[in-house]
Amino acid sequence: MSYFQQIAQAVIAGKAPDTERLINEAIAAGCNPADIINQGLVAGMEVVADKFKKNEFYVPEVLIAARAMHAGLAIVRPLISDTDVQPLGKVIIGTVKGDLHDIGKKLVAMMLEGAGFEVIDLGIDVSPEKFVEAVREHKPDVLGMSALLTTTMPAMADTIKLLVESGLRDQVKVIVGGAPITDAFAREIGADGYAPDAGSAVDVTKSLVA
Amino acid sequence: MNARERWQRVFRFQSVDRIPNYEFGYWEQLYAEWHQQGLPPEIKDEKSADAYFGLDTKMTVSPRLGLIPPFEVKTLYVKDGRRVYQTAEGVICEVHESGDASIPHYLEFPIKDRASWNEFKERLDPDSPQRQVPNIDEIAERCRLSDVPVGINIGSLLGKPRDWIGFEQTALLAYDDPELLDEIIENQCQLIIQGITPFLERIRFDYAAGWEDICFNSGPLLSPAMLRDFLLPRYRRIADLLRQHGVEVIWTDCDGNIMEIVDIWLEAGYNCMFPIEVRAGSDPVLLRERYGQDVLLLGGVDKMILYQGPEAILAELKRLAPVVEEGGFVPHIDHRVPCGVPLENYLYYHKEKRALLGY
C-alpha cells in the first residue's frame, strides 16, 4: 500500500497519531506535500463523507477523522506554497440571523474542508448584511446558510434578496440546509441548491462549482 | 369509560369509545401570535391551551433524578443583544436578550474530563437522602384515585450526559475514553433505578416516560452499534423493573430520525415511540409496517402540514387513519406547534383530528 493510501486509511480510521507518523515518513521518503494532501488526507475524508451519507459512519467517526486530517494538515501546510494546492473552491458558511445553533453547520464546514474546499465560517446569528459583506470581501464560489428553526428560515430569503439588491447574486451560488428546510423551500426562495445532510452538502457544493 | 381506562385500552389494542386526545405543546412565542388571531388573552400557557382546545389530561410523577444541588442560575454578562448565563446544570449558554425563540448557543460544559466528572457526580449521588420524596404516600394515594393516566418520569441515560459534556465532546469521548462515558451512563442508570423504585413499589403506573433526544434528521448521535453497547443493557434493566411493577407502556422522548435505533428500544422493552418526527424521517406508518403491534405510537403527525392548510392537514390525517384504527396509536403533532402556524389551521386540524379519534 502506498503512503498516500496508508494516510487515507489512517484518516478514515480517525487515527491522528498514525496520520502524523505516516506523513512524516512520506515526507522523509520524498513524497510531494501537495500529493499528500490530495491523495492522502482529502481522499480519506472523501471516503468518510461518503460513509456518513450512507449511515455507515456517524458523527463520532466524522469528528475523529477530521481531527486526524487537521493533525496531518498541520504538518504538511507549512511545506507547501499557496499555488501548490488549489482548493476546489471557496465557501462562506453561517447560521442565519436569529438562529444560535451550530452543530449541523460545523459538520458541513468540516466535510467541505475535508473535501478540499476553503471554508470561511461566519458563525451563528449571521445577518443578511453580514453575509453580503462577506461575499463582497471574500468573493466565494458558494454561500451556505443553515437554519434550525422555522422562525429563522425567512432570513435565508432575506439574504438572497439582499444579494440581488447588492448586485452580487450572479457572482455566488447559494445552498441552504437545516432541519426544517426542504428542496421546495430552497427553490421557492431562489437558492441554487439544498442539502438534507452534511454528506450531501459536499456533493451539492461540488456540483455547483463544477 | 374514563381517560385512564381509555388510555390503557387503546395501548392494549382493545376497543375504545374514542381515542385519547393529547398534544405535545406549543412554542412559547406562539401564544402572542395567536392572540392577534383571536385566541382569548387568558390562554397563555400549555395548561390553559390544552383545556381550551379540549384535550385530555394525564399525570406524570417525577422522582428526583436531577442534580442535587443544582448549579446557581446566573447571568454572567450581556453583550451585543445576547445574554450569557449559567444554567442550573452548570452549562454556560448564550441566548438572545430579547427572548426570541432559538436553541441556546452552548459555550462551555461542566464535564470536561475525569477530574471534572468526579466533581460533578457528587450532585448525582443515587444515595443522597435529598432524593427521598417525603410525601410519596400522599402522591401514591392521588395516583391510585386518578381517573386520568398516571405515569412516571424515568429520566435519561445519554441525553443528559450529552447536555453536560457537550455534543461534539460526547461523540469524541465515545472513542477517546469509552470507559468514562460508560461510567457516566452507568451512574445515570443506577440513579434512575434507585429513584423510581420507591414509586413503583407504591403506585401502578400506566406509562413510563424517559427523554433522550439523541437523533438528528440523518440518524442517531452515535452509531447503533455503540448505542447498543452503551445503552441496551441499561435500558433493559430499567424496563425489566418497570414491567415487574406492571408498567405496560414505556417510551423515551427522542426527536429526529429514530428509525435506525428503534430495534434497540424494542429489544430492551421500551415499546412506545414518541414523538415520531415525520419530517426528520421517523414515520408511524412505517413503524407499524415494520414492527406490527410490537410497537406503540404516540405523536407522529407532521407539524409542517399545519403551515399548509386544510388540504394538507386532511391528507396527513387520512394517511395515518388506518394505523389509528388498528390501535396502539395516539396521534398528535410530532413536537411543539411552531411559530407562524395560523390559528385557523390549528383549529381545523383539531376539528378533523377529533373526527378521526371518534368523537
Q: How would you portray this structure in words?
A:
The complex is a heterodimer of chains A (210) and B (359). Chain A is of the alpha/beta class and 210 residues long. Chain A folds into two domains: 3-79, Methyltransferase, Methionine Synthase (B12-binding Domains), Chain A, domain 1 (Orthogonal Bundle); 90-209, 3-Layer(aba) Sandwich (Rossmann fold), CATH 3.40.50. Chain A contains nine helices and five strands, in the order H-H-H-H-E-H-E-H-E-H-E-H-E-H. Chain A has helices at 3-12, 16-28, 33-53, 59-76, 103-114, 128-138, 154-165, 183-188, 198-209; strands spanning 90-95, 118-121, 142-146, 173-177, 193-194. A five-stranded parallel beta sheet of chain A has the order 2-1-3-4-5, with helices on both faces. In chain A, helix 8 links the parallel strand 4 (173-177) and strand 5 (193-194). The mean pLDDT of chain A is 92. Chain B is α/β, with parallel strands linked by helices and 359 residues long. Chain B folds into two domains: 3-68 and 110-357, TIM Barrel; 72-109, no CATH class. Helix content of chain B is 42%, strand content 16%. Chain B contains 15 helices and 13 strands. In chain B, helix 7 (167-176) crosses helix 8, helix 10 packs across helix 11 (262-268) and helix 14 runs parallel beside helix 15 (343-357). Chain B is globular, with a radius of gyration of 21 Å. The model of chain B has no long low-confidence stretch (mean pLDDT 96). Chains A and B meet through helix 4 and helix 5 of A and strand 4, helix 7 and strand 9 of B.
User: Largest chain interface and its two residue counts?
Assistant: A-B, 31 and 34 residues
CATH class type of the largest domain in chain B:
Alpha Beta
- On the 0 to 100 scale, the average pLDDT of chain A is 92
Q: Taking Cα atoms only, what radius of gyration of chain A do you get, to the nearest Å?
A: 18 Å
Proportion in helices of chain B: 40-55%
- Examine the coordinates and then state which fold CATH places here, giving the name of the CATH topology of the largest domain in chain A: Rossmann fold
Spell the H/E element sequence of chain B. HHHEEEEEHHEHHHEEEHHEHEHEHHEH
Mean of residue pLDDT of chain B?
96
Judged by helices, strands and strand pairing, the structural class of chain B is: alpha/beta
Q: From the coordinates shown, what is the CATH architecture of the largest domain in chain A?
A: 3-Layer(aba) Sandwich
Largest sheet of chain B: 4 strands, parallel
What is the terminal-to-terminal distance of chain B? 13 Å
Describe the oligomeric state of these chains in a short phrase.
heterodimer
Give the overall silhouette of chain A.
elongated
Strand order of the largest sheet of chain B: 1-6-7-10
- What does the radius of gyration of chain B come to? 21 Å
Question: How many beta strands in the DSSP annotation of chain B?
Answer: 13
